Amino acid sequence: MTTAVLESRAGRRCHNMLNSLHAAHYFSPDLGEELSALGITHPKARNFAVRGAALGPVGPGTVAAVFYNYKYELVARHVPGVWESAAPGEILDARARAVDATLRRLLGEEILASREMAEAAQLALRATEACTRPARPLYSAHADLPVPEQPHMALFHAATLLREHRGDGHVALLTAAGLDGLEAVVTHTATGKGMTPKWVFATRGWSQEEWDAACERLRGRGLLDGDGELTEQGVALRAQIEADTDRLDRAPYEHLGAQGVARLTELGKAFAGAAVGAGAFPADLIGKD
After folding, report:
1. Helix, strand or coil for residue 132?
2. Less Cβ around it within 10 Å: N or C end of the chain?
């Protein structure tokens, strides 16, 4: 019997589908309600709270380091204050309740109770068996959390592990490429696949002036042209970073195998599509304008 070879971008495609499902809760009103009940009411504090809680009650320096593309001063306005409002364990419980409510609202009870959901959770958890801890702080912190029993929550947990595993490797490569946090965002936005400047300013703490200064630095390096588009050198750099990220993130998907990855991608695409169709994300989130 022959074993199908894992195509070079198969893991990336699978990750993109699972990450879309994972990211939906960041924009969910359910998350705001759960955190507000704990005294965390500022919209910009939510991400630091729920994504950083697995690290424990750390200071702003740690959060800024691992999140990478957020302005430190923004982080410091909310961390460690969020831990004074609620302990990390309480925040993680609130996140779980919000995710459960969000997925029920976006996908519906029938999908959550389906065999396909259980299958997706099983496949995603199998992929996480090959994730590695060294030099991956956000992944490693989340890997210490228990696996939920309900399939849709187990799928969210596995999607989170795969997301943070890839993200930790990606941050290392951005650093190696000499792109600071804002420059990384600017070049990603220039590909047409990143957040619009409006959402960068609203969520990452950077100003228009700082964005313009980052653009000027990138033009000086030959990565951005006068119109804010990537040059050939810029396109090549972003492509190389993504290819190297695929390489560092290959183990989970090789462990799952080509057929398993294809099936998980198919299921993830269906679930993510349903979530997007139900209005999971703002219409102006992704793009250049």
Report:
1. coil
2. N
- How many degrees, rounded to 5, is the angle at CA 106 between CA 101 and CA 108? 85
Domain span at residue 23 reads 11-277
Nearest to 250 by CA among 3, 17, 14, 2: 14
**Residue 221 to residue 179: CA distance in whole angstroms:** 11
Ranges in the chain, pLDDT < 70:
1-3, 289
Residue 289, pLDDT score: 67
The separation between the first and the last C-alpha atoms of the chain, rounded to the nearest angstrom, is 50
How far is it, in rounded angstroms, from Cα 120 to Cα 268? 7
Query: What pTM value is reported for the model?
Result: 0.95
- How many of the other CB atoms lie within 10 Å of CB of 90? 17
DSSP 169-219: HHHHHHHHTT--HHHHHHHHHHTTSSB-HHHHHHHH---HHHHHHHHHHHH
Burial class from Cβ neighbours inside 10 Å (0-12, 13-18, 19+) for residue 204 reads buried
Read off the amino acid at residue 44.
K
**71 within 8 A of 211, measured Cβ to Cβ:** no
CA atoms 137, 141, 143, 148: torsion sign: negative
pLDDT of amino acid 1: 35
Distance CA 55, CA 57 (A): 7
Residue 158 near residue 253 (C-beta atoms within 8 A)? no
At residue 28's C-alpha, the angle toward residues 50 and 209, to 5°, is 75
Burial 210-219 (b: 16+ CB within 10 A, else e): bbeebbebbe
Single-letter code of the amino acid located at 84: E
Q: What's the number of domains the chain is made of? A: 1
d(CA 127, CA 138): 17
* pLDDT for the residue 3: 53
